Amino acid sequence: MKREFVENKMKLASLIICACLLSGAGVCAQDIDGFGEDVNTSLATSKNSIKAALKDVTGKKPRAAVAGATAAAFDADVPEATQAQILNDLAFVRAIQGATASGLHRQIFGLVDGPTYGRFFDSRVKAIGMDDCGGGPSAIACVIPFRDPAKMWLTQNYLKYNQPQISRLDTVFHEARHTESEHHNWHHALCPIPFKDENGNDVRGILSGRLMEGLNACDVTPFGSYGTGMIMLKNIQKFCSNCTDKVRMDAGIYGDDTCNRIIDPDAKKAIREDLYR
Amino acid sequence: MKTAVLIAAALAVLAVCGWWAARFWSRGGVSGRGEPPALAAPESSRIGRQARPAGGRAASRPAGGAGERLRAGPASATAEEPKPRAEMARPQGAGGRPRPRYEAEAAAKLETLQEILGSKNDNDPRLDRDFNDLSPEVKRLLRQKYRRIPPERRNDRGTIVYLLGRNLKSAEDWTFLREVVSEPPCLSLADCSKEMKTEDDHRALGAEVTLAYPSLVALKQAQRVLEEARTAAGQAPGASTAAAREALLVIRAAKNSKTPIVAKTAAEIGRR
Q1: In sequence order, what are the beta bridge partners of B63?
Q2: What is the pLDDT of residue B202?
């Protein structure tokens, strides 16, 4: 016991030294004093890196500043850095403010409002684990209903890929919608054969270049997973009052892209009237 | 275990000593100014791998512009972007003297940016607040930083394009946007240079956008300028700003992008 304590202290000391080397002795000296307290979001990255290193040694829980960002329980094998990332992302979405919302958004969520988004997520996702989600370099998250309909699985890519925050949230809320067993998990539709865009060209997967027709990658309703993510993003773009311009721009870019996955003409019309007029 | 830790600690102490010695040396008489802290450590050899536009050279430059050339290949990791003349004429910090104000300001901006990128918090209000009316020096450093960031850092790169796109004033600013929309495709989020056999089903949600993100951000900024110009022209018919012409050049360059979503988005903007 004592030996373990001493070893941990030595590890801690060496990590502090290494962190000092990486981030500058002056910063480090200030930071060690604050170890163990809540992390203020405005702290320097170097400080956060030190805290993250210390956290690994001491086995502390993810940062208190974002604890409570979700009620979902993490599996033991979810790396702390991944936990911290999704907690930060959910803390961001819980802080969103907006005075209004589009009609479709009201039907799915309510107003553009952080606590509303938080309740949507919490009422659906009860646990978070790690999986490869069927593999493939693009997989970031998934729901596997036959294993646990209320559990979201993240892949290593959630943390690994350097993507905008709004893209991660799009994925998370897309998957949260897939937990709804009462709606058959809002399973996707097969893209039509032939699958043409508005200019009459074949729609091809941009990653593989192969035809998208016949793939399980479309929706026929605005209320499915694609629609839910897209409607959330487009409403953030239009109505979020405390988002940065970048977040709103990103929400528009990713929301517009997801719109292409909805293929039913009536669903498309409903979305156009709700969000693009 | 103990031995390994002790060796690590000893190495660390040596490195600290080395760092202080280097600092003392640089203060003691090496002339010229040092790089701002955020740029002090060059990135890996992957830096600038995507720097060359698809066509081998940037789109046509505006008449009279003091356009800059985008560095290509491995040399881009170390080459410096030429400074605007006005910047060159300013006093340089020399041994022991405090940094000029503009230089300290540029370093502070880069430090702020690094904090934001490290936090992965795109809703940091400093993005809206602290990067307005950027000086030519700060913009030069941001472009330099962009080229040093590995291309797989799609959001980091896109964030820099976003900030520069809010400060479009000089010919260099517009040339940079054209270069970004002309970049070769990033083939994989894990490694832009390696094409990966991948899926197109729901697992690829948003991947196409993320792969093209910096270019799409550049296009969005050009679109914004264009829309502002059109609004202004509505109030004063016949008016056509130089900025609108530059924005159209960006969109034209994007139409030739080898990245389908960039070319498609540019075509859509062009039709509006």
Answers
A1: none
A2: 59
In 3D space, the residue among A233, A239, A235, A226 whose CA is nearest the CA of residue A251 turns out to be A233
The pLDDT value recorded for residue B95 is: 56
Is residue A238 domain-shared with residue A112, that is, in the same domain?
yes
Looking at the structure, do residues A156 and A21 belong to the same domain, yes or no? no
What is the DSSP secondary structure assignment for residue A153, as one 8-state letter? E
- Among A10, A42, A60, give the residue marking a domain's end: A60
Q: Do A10 and B213 touch (CB under 8 A)?
A: no
Number of structural domains (chain A) is 2
What SS3 string covers B100-151?
CHHHHHHHHHHHHHHHHHHHCCCCCCHHHHCCCCCCHHHHHHHHHHHHHCCC
Going by the DSSP 8-state scheme, the letter that residue A74 receives in this structure is: E
- Inter-chain contact A217–B202, Cβ cutoff 8 Å? yes
How much is the pTM? 0.71
Q: Which of residues 214-233 of B touch A (CB under 8 A)?
A: 216-217, 220
The answer to whether the Cβ–Cβ distance between B220 and A170 falls below 8 Å is no
CB–CB of A188 and B202 under 8 A? yes
State the residue range of the domain holding A30.
1-60
Chain A contact present for B208, CB below 8 A: yes
Q: Quick one: which of B267, B233, B8, B189 has its CA closest to A140?
A: B189
ipTM above 0.85, yes or no: no
Q: Is the Cβ pair A216, B119 closer than 8 Å?
A: no
The minimal CB distance from B121 to the residues A13, A41, A139 is found for A41
Same domain, A150 and A48: no
At A133-155, the pLDDT tens digits run 888 777 889 999 999 999 999 99
Cα(B257)–Cα(B222) distance, integer angstroms: 15
